[in-house]
Specification:
The structure is a homodimer. By secondary structure, chain A is an all-alpha fold. Helices cover about 70% and strands about 0% of the residues of chain A. In chain A, about 35% of the residues are buried. The first copy, chain A, binds a DNA duplex through α1 and α3.
DNA sequence: GTCTATACTCTGATAGAC
DNA sequence: GTCTATCAGAGTATAGAC
């Protein structure tokens, strides 16, 4: 009884909608990333769906948030373990859901406008990723596994940019190996790189 | 008299339109990257402008092509000289024209769809850049300046991805140093990196 | 070659009934 | 909470006059 019934129900429904939306876009591809398609898929009218969100853009940001939540829970190690391996798993998964990658890319471009509802989401997300990366590289440096002339900050930026850029290249040509690109970015800052970059 | 008058005039007008469009978007920003804005800027009606292009999408592809043409002429060395320095100049220039970077990013996402008019443009452009990069890294390898375990192909992909990704990050946060990210990507494959990555 | 005018499509937003 | 119905707006494409 910590939540009023109707409120809790609304929240639950919202979550359920987001998960359903995620599933459709994953399954049907980028075409399904429109308000009408999602409404159909979750069994609501367009107006019924928008009842739960401030606008189309807000809906899509929430979809991406939910995706992050699920992905982090599924693929991310506890307490900053093997970050490159976690990234690899996420990327391998992404390669199965081009619709979501496309939606993410579209939104990240649109979010360039500071007034866009997704702007804060991407700013926070980027900051979060960079924090995790910097910590990881710092640990690598402390363990002597890092080229001393490479700062964790720059290495982190490079990994992040490589990931985003690899997605763009992959959307254009699915034969592109996203994981290899990100792996290369990681290794760029590390010592003992023999036989790793190919 | 190698060209018929009216045809040559049409072509010339087209080039002139593209250069004017480029100038407006560079000056006015991403907002100006719409058919109506460009029509106004070049002193034509919307229909008048579209008379020269098959569609809106084709118009924008041609704008990007023209930009490449001018940028390559201005910033690119003859015969594959100092590629990183050329990139650096281009990136410094890009940082002055956010509207064009934004347009480019938008188009590169939309071009993910193989049916999109920009698809071939981006495929060709990527292939061209990768060729140039691979040649350059190959020369570096021949000169013994490259970590032997790094293939020119992977290094090229990484540089390309880093550039694209850096642009996305920069659009989101203009304090991001695009040049530093691309520089880091270049150096990742090279030996003698002391005091270069920061 | 260029314009005016219009038609059309898509899609998001809103009002109001149930 | 959800629907139907309608509106509003953006923006492209086209027809046809000059």
């Amino acid at each position: 009884m910590t939540q009023r019934g109707s409120y809790a129900k609304g929240v639950a429904r919202r979550e359920q909608i987001l998960e359903a939306a995620l599933a459709v876009i994953a399954r049907e591809g980028y075409r399904a990333a429109s308000v009408r398609e999602i409404a159909d898929a979750v069994g609501l009218s367009q107006a019924g769906l928008l009842h739960y969100f401030d606008s189309k853009e807000h809906l899509f940001v929430e979809i991406l948030r939910k995706r992050d939540e699920l992905d982090l829970r599924t693929y991310h190690p506890e307490g900053g373990g093997d970050l490159p391996a976690a990234y690899e798993r996420m990327i391998a998964h992404n390669a199965q859901v081009p619709g979501l990658v496309h939606l993410f890319a579209r939104m990240s471009v649109e979010a360039g406008d500071p007034a866009h509802p997704a702007h804060a989401y991407f700013a926070d997300r980027t900051a979060g990723f960079l924090d995790g990366l910097r910590d990881w590289f710092q640990h690598a440096a402390d363990a002597g596994r890092m080229a001393p002339e490479v700062s964790p900050a720059t290495a982190s930026r490079l990994v992040q940019a490589a990931w985003d850029g690899a997605q763009l290249q992959w959307l254009l040509d699915p034969s592109v190996d996203m994981a290899a690109i990100v792996r290369a970015a990681f290794q760029s800052a590390l010592t003992g790189r023999e036989a790793q970059l190919r």
